[in-house]
């Protein structure tokens, strides 16, 4: 298959913007990415922005005589529990812009497996009420509140929920949720002091 040609007869991929390097285009996208997220960004653009930000944030290799300090520190996690793949992918992409590592699950059972393995690292659990599997999001929320009380707990649903059904520690965000509200909860999960374990 032939590449599309410009009016000059050269392939468009080579003359996309001769005066602006692709790295600069990516950096410009990265600078306006937060505004684009609220409007909905196509996944291929989000991937480009993540690559640009990652390449800018890559630290220089540590000196051979000095061990990397980050190896000893476990990365904090955001756990997204949502059975709709598109909504889960949107939440994951959004939370990848925070300092948290993101793990997505389609069921409460899968989320519990992650919590059992890395519960001490989980800073945020963002769960829908309706999930694949036997447990729903409210049952998961009660388990998290009881067994992993240091994790910030956010429950979401497109249907109303009675407050007594939620653990007192949980925050409820109605669907369709705003990206800003999710990012605020992620920020609180990383900056607010965790409740003491009693």
Q: Can you describe what's shown?
A:
This protein is of the alpha/beta class and 198 residues long. The protein has 2 domains: 19-57, no CATH class; 74-191, Response regulator (Rossmann fold), CATH 3.40.50. Helices cover 39% and strands 14% of the residues. The chain has helices at residues 22-31, 33-39, 43-57, 85-95, 108-118, 137-147, 179-191; strands at 77-81, 101-105, 122-128, 152-157, 171-174. A 5-stranded parallel beta sheet has the order 2-1-3-4-5, with helices on both faces. α6 (137-147) links the parallel β3 (122-128) and β4 (152-157). α1 packs across α3 (43-57) and α5 (108-118) packs parallel to α6. The longest helix is centred in the first third of the chain and has 15 residues, at 43-57. Residues 1-7, 10-17 and 63-73 have low confidence and may be disordered.
Task: State the gist of this model.
Helix 1 crosses helix 3 and helix 5 (108-118) packs parallel to helix 6 (137-147). The protein has helices at 22-31, 33-39, 43-57, 85-95, 108-118, 137-147, 179-191, and strands at 77-81, 101-105, 122-128, 152-157, 171-174. Mean pLDDT is 76; it is low at 1-7, 10-17 and 63-73.
